[in-house]
Design goal:
AzlD domain-containing protein, transmembrane helix, membrane
């Protein structure tokens, strides 16, 4: 790839990264009073993160069965109020054990 194209790509990536950070600062100069809008803005990062990572859960292992078992273990433990590290380690262990059995 020629250097000019690389620099254009880097500039566009920087712009795309910078715009979502600047727009809220310029659009919302006053404190947001709407409870609906505040809750929407509070939960949006979690929803986007979930939408980006959840499909990879099922394609990260070689077997859909082990991925489903790990997901089920993570859902059960998180529903029971376990911590993030506990849930992640348990899900990894379940996937590993299921992969060994298959």
């Amino acid at each position: 790839m020629e250097m000019k194209r690389v620099l254009i790509c880097v500039a566009l990536m920087a712009l795309v990264t910078y715009i979502p950070r600047v727009v809220p600062l310029t659009a919302f100069r006053k404190p947001i009073k709407s409870k609906y809008l505040r809750s929407f803005l509070d939960y949006t990062p979690y929803a986007v993160l979930g939408a980006m990572t959840f499909p990879d859960v099922f394609t990260s292992t070689g077997s859909l069965i082990s991925a489903l078992c790990g997901t089920a273990a993570a859902l059960v433990l998180s529903y029971r109020g376990k911590g993030l590290v506990t849930v992640a380690c348990a899900a990894i262990a379940v996937v590993y054990l299921v992969e060994l059995l298959l």
